[in-house]
C-alpha cells in the first residue's frame, strides 16, 4: 500500500488527529475491529460485543488526487473470531472461504458452514459485556 501524504487534521476543534491518503489500494485488506476497551472505573479492559455487520463484498473508493486505482472491489475471505468475555480469557476460531465454501477452523476441528452462519459472528444486539463470539479481524481480497 503506497501512502501519498501523511497529515494531521483538527476534528471538531478538539485537537489534531492523524490521517493519510492512500495512493494504491492493497490486494489484501485486513480490518481490525476494536472489540476491547479500557474501562477506567473497572481498571481493566472489557469486551465490546456490539453488533458489527460486515459485508461479504466491499467497495473502497480512493480519493487521493494521484491515486493509482480509484476504486476496488473486495470479497470477504476470512474472519478471525474471539469467543469469550474479555481480552485475557477466551478462544479464537477462524472462518475461511476456500474453493467457494466457508470453513470454520476450531483447533483441530474443521467444518463446512453456510454463508448465512457468518451472521452469528456479527456480535450482540444489546448487552455489550456479555460472553460472545464476535468477528475481530476481517480479511478481504481484491477481485483485481
Automatic annotation (TrEMBL):
PROSITE patterns: USP_2, USP_3. It comes from the Eukaryota. Residues 1-143 form the USP domain. One of its GO terms (cellular component) is nucleus. Gene3D superfamilies: Cysteine proteinases. GO terms for molecular function: cysteine-type deubiquitinase activity; metal ion binding. One of its GO terms (biological process) is proteolysis. Coiled coil: none annotated. Its EC number is 3.4.19.12. It catalyses: Thiol-dependent hydrolysis of ester, thioester, amide, peptide and isopeptide bonds formed by the C-terminal Gly of ubiquitin (a 76-residue protein attached to proteins as an intracellular targeting signal). It is an enzyme of class 3 (hydrolase). Keywords: Behavior, Hydrolase, Metal-binding, Protease, Thiol protease, Ubl conjugation pathway, Zinc. Belongs to the peptidase C19 family. USP12/USP46 subfamily. This is Ubiquitin carboxyl-terminal hydrolase 46. It comes from Polypterus senegalus (Senegal bichir).
Amino acid at each position: 500500500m503506497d501512502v501519498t501524504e501523511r497529515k494531521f487534521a483538527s476534528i471538531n476543534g478538539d485537537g489534531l488527529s492523524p490521517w493519510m491518503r492512500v495512493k494504491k489500494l492493497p490486494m489484501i485488506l485486513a480490518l481490525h475491529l476494536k472489540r476491547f476497551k479500557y474501562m477506567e472505573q473497572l481498571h481493566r479492559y472489557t469486551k465490546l460485543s456490539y453488533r458489527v455487520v460486515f459485508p461479504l463484498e466491499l467497495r473502497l473508493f480512493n480519493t487521493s488526487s494521484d491515486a493509482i486505482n480509484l476504486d476496488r472491489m473486495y470479497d470477504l475471505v476470512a474472519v478471525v473470531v474471539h469467543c469469550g468475555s474479555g481480552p485475557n480469557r477466551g478462544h479464537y476460531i477462524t472462518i475461511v472461504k476456500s474453493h467457494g465454501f466457508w470453513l470454520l477452523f476450531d483447533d483441530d476441528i474443521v467444518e463446512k458452514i453456510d454463508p448465512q452462519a457468518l451472521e452469528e459472528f456479527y456480535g450482540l444486539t444489546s448487552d455489550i459485556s456479555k460472553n460472545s463470539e464476535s468477528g475481530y479481524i476481517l480479511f478481504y481480497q481484491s477481485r483485481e
